[in-house]
Design a protein that fits this description.
Elements: E1 2-6, H1 10-21, E2 25-30, E3 45-48, H2 54-59, E4 67-70, H3 75-87, E5 93-97, E6 115-117, H4 120-131, E7 137-141, E8 147-153, E9 175-181, E10 184-186, E11 199-205, H5 209-216
Parallel strand pairs: 1-2, 1-4, 2-3, 4-5, 5-6
Antiparallel strand pairs: 7-8, 8-11, 9-10, 9-11
Helix pairs in contact: 1-4
């Protein structure tokens, strides 16, 4: 997956490090020469340019990006970057950082924003979750303990499609917390049936993640 991140400050670099560590191709774009701290994320590509300029986005080859993350400290710049990415270059998914909560109402599809968030780790998870079906994505880890919230979008080939929740043999220390279907949350009961494209939110431990992946979406 190719991800272009506008804003090479602490937030942008944090996102870039996590995505690069997960083997994604990352390009960091910033107009401030002082932000070009290439040694901080050596796995990423870097571009000194203004993401609010179409010429800069053309240089970044935005038409080849799977996701654009607008992570600058300026809400106006993030909105313009997202809008240009979506309308001028047809980027499939845009994720934008909201710096001022008063501006949240603007961060919507009208401005080309698919997902508006403010926490680096959550942004990273949402970027991956947005374009991944059948892969387990760790949303966050509880600091006091070994449990983590993970997400997986159930693919059509999953053997659990049409299964009752109560009949599933979940791995040890794993709990199905919620099902998101057609954008709406469902509190799962034992008689609920799993469907293809369901987004499953689960609490689990690191030792059970591989077994959970194999259960929900085995590799061919």
């Amino acid at each position: 997956m190719r991800v272009v991140i506008a804003g090479a400050g602490s937030v942008g670099r944090s996102i870039a490090r996590e995505l690069a560590a997960n083997t994604h191709q990352v390009l960091l774009v910033d107009k401030d020469p002082a932000a070009m701290k290439m040694s901080s994320v050596p796995q990423a590509e870097w571009l000194l340019a203004d993401s609010c300029e179409t010429s800069s986005l053309a240089e970044a080859q935005l038409e080849t990006a799977d996701v654009v993350v607008a992570a600058t400290g300026d809400d106006k710049a993030n909105l313009v970057t997202a809008l240009l990415a979506k309308t001028e270059y047809g980027v499939p998914r845009t994720v934008a950082r909201v710096n001022n909560p008063k501006n949240e109402w603007m961060f919507d599809e009208a401005w080309g924003v698919d997902v508006a968030v403010s926490t680096p780790r959550l942004m990273t998870a949402l970027v991956e979750e947005a374009v991944t079906v059948g892969d387990l994505v760790r949303m966050f880890t509880f600091q006091r303990g070994q449990a983590a919230m993970v997400e997986l979008t159930l693919p059509g080939h999953s053997p659990l499609v049409s299964s009752r929740v109560g009949d599933v043999g979940w791995p040890p220390e794993t709990v199905l917390v919620a099902i998101i279907r057609s954008g709406r949350p469902i509190a799962p009961g034992p008689d609920d049936t799993l469907e293809a494209a369901d987004e499953l939110l689960l609490l689990t431990v690191a030792e059970s993640e591989a077994e959970l992946q194999a259960l929900l979406a085995p590799r061919h």
